[in-house]
Amino acid sequence: MTTIKPETIHTGRLTLLPLQVEHAEEMAAVLSDPGLHTFIGGTPATAQGLRTRYERLVAGSPDPTVSWCNWVIRLRDTDRLTGTVQATVTADDHGRVAEIAWVVGTAWQRRRIATEATQGLITWLGTQAVQTVIAHIHPDHQASAAVATEAGLTPTDQWHDGEIRWQLTIG
Q: How far apart are CA 167 and CA 133, in angstroms?
């Protein structure tokens, strides 16, 4: 499998920018609400913690058969970062599979930013010959379930680490 590199993605209101280490400081503020960790665990990272994490992500997967694609979400009318989307792309017997995730800072929630960003990401993944999109969502996380539904994913009967596997076939 050829490695996939994230590219800038434009949607109606958003620009998904390929992740850079320099985004860490602004993203630390965006992701500072402990409530964002209710379903995923952990605590908000410091700017230095994000910088270290982003250095690893930007360097890419050490496995040449896995592509790590990460973006920050910029709301164009305010020129502010509001969250992230990501896709880990692998291949199986049926083609390329992308496991996706999203998070939008508390101050920007309930504006359909996560939905728009996720839809833009899925459209882009389709141009990269991805056939299957997967997300794992906690059964009580209604907001993420709504984003997944609007993006075309449907829940399956499969569970992974206490989360429901959602899936969409696009290719």
A: 6
